[in-house]
Amino acid sequence: MSSDTSPWGLHPFSNQKEIRLQWEQLRIRIVKRGSDLLLVENRDGSHSGIQLGTYPESDFRRYAFQSPVESIHVQPRTPDRPLVVQPIHPLRLAPRAKVEFYVSIPLDIQLFAGEGKSGESIERIRGEILSDTWFGDLAGGVLCYAIKSRARRECPTIDSETTARALCKVEIHNRSIEQLHCTKFCLRLDHCHLWRSEASLWTSPVHIRFNGNDQLSSIDYSEKAPSEAPQATKITEATEAPLSGLIRRTFAGLGNSLT
């Protein structure tokens, strides 16, 4: 039975018939039977109740392959929708001022049969079950996930070996002559790489420029890891190539005004 310290990366079956992966909120069991894989996920905090006997329970998922699978590759992914994030306290940012926030973001878990990009995709599983929310007006809004973790000024500590989360550094720069009032903002991560530094995972930094109440905001995505992640190694490429100057509606302030 495979049970490596880190759930991320390559997990060979070797002479074993199953691989177990676990995070704080999620347990995954993958059983090898000939050229088939049986997968069960559990979110009650333990492997108890996950049984695969002669007559497996009905909630497993079966994947059939041309030949026996020798290893499972586990890769973190940023969520497949934007996230709506609230600062711990409503933000009022003076003209020309800058502020940095750190956001703990939930990750998806991508499973491959085989190693890396050459492996065959098995399934993408959410590390956490998130609530749907809408950001923007009916005509120009976007379907997002709402997250409970708040944007913080101080950098938190996250052990990504035990929880399916990464840290995102967000810099907000008020380029206008108006004060920015912000009670929540929309964080789009599809242009962010994922980096591993010691026991933590990080996204590429995001730089948001507020251009005024009657203008949309500009967003820059870095190609590099944040300075807080020493000797970082890129472990997941961004879904979309990092860009600079992307124009998007980003902030919601008092009275639900959007910019």
Automatic annotation (TrEMBL):
Q: Which Pfam families match?
A: DUF432
Q: What InterPro entries has UniProt attached to this entry? A: DUF432
> Which named protein is this?
DUF432 domain-containing protein
What organism, scientifically named, is this protein from? Coraliomargarita algicola
